[in-house]
Structure prediction request, 407 residues.
Amino acid sequence: MPKRERVMRMSVELPLWRALAGYRVLTMLYAIGLCATAYDRFTRPWVAVAYYAVLAVWTLATLPKVSGAASCTRRFLAADLAIALAGILLTPLADNHQRIASGGPTLPSIWTAGAVLAFAVKGGWRWAAIASTAVAAANLIERGHPARDTVHNVILVWVASIAIGYVVEVARASERTLARALEIEAATRERERLARDIHDSVLQVLAMVKRRGAALGGEAAELGRLAGEQEVALRTLVSGGLVPVSRVSEDLAEGAVVRAVEEPDDDGPLDLRALLAPYAGARVSLAEPGAPVPLSPDAAREVAAAVGAALDNVRAHAGEGARAWILVEDEPDEIVVTVRDDGPGIPEGRLAQAEGEGRLGVALSIRGRLRDLGGGAEILSVPGQGTEVELKVPKGAVRARGKKAER
Prediction:
């Protein structure tokens, strides 16, 4: 059994979370070390000891919380920032005023930056800006006035956290783009493998049935024709995957083609190529752009219906053996769909005569649909050289209100 490719995703955030966890532990030990070296200078050392006990327990107990974005919840971030802010505001109560005025560190010291960085890694630069602003306000309150070193530290934390948050957002977007590209590459390779397998088995069988049926004639010829059409449809499917056909059935007695296409129910644009793809068959070739051809749902369905009406005319007037070609062109301001056949053509004046006799198939089913969309239909025919129907619809076209095209 052939191996199926699997896309392996590697998170670019994982190293950041690991670094953050290590930073929190190291800065917690650093803050406790600062307290130990200056213990005799504190006016209320028991306040510092109590705070560091809480800080140590919180830092070690919440290490799993900073292992990834899923576990780092908003509630945890709020509590983490609250502990950092509480330590800053408790500093005047534990330390002496002279040491604070001379630029002494706060109780949490640089551990506070870890709380802000958690906001940056989790929510990007906007969350980082909110957290760093709260820390800046607490530092200004703790110092009592905007000292130079305090402002310097506040700006440093603010800029660094926002920059890291922005880098995280860019990394996430790049990761999503890379993952999508890898998925597309894997899907393309899988489709190529399936196409090779199908070509080596199913398509060759269908082609053989088509050739043998044509050679035997009679009912076998009809069976060969059906096999040929299924071969074309299957080739279209494995090469592009465009055809969203849920059911294609043919009334062989009357020569009518009934097609049911699964279409989106939303109001977003439809790819005109997907609506025209079901018309392709053994005697109908479809040439289309490589990129989607978006139209509003109403406009796309009306254009597809007009193409179907043109093909109905080919079957009715050019004979069962006639071939037809559909060409889709995506111009800057409009979309042009051309339906051409190799039939006997339309005698001069025949269309006007048909309208005068009350047969309005071309007038309503083709020209009327395009007129309601703000476009137009031009029919060119030379006796003995086939017929060409050119449909033009402006981009952004919507069917006129109150008008429902005839079906």
User: Anything to note?
Assistant: Residues 14-176 form one domain.
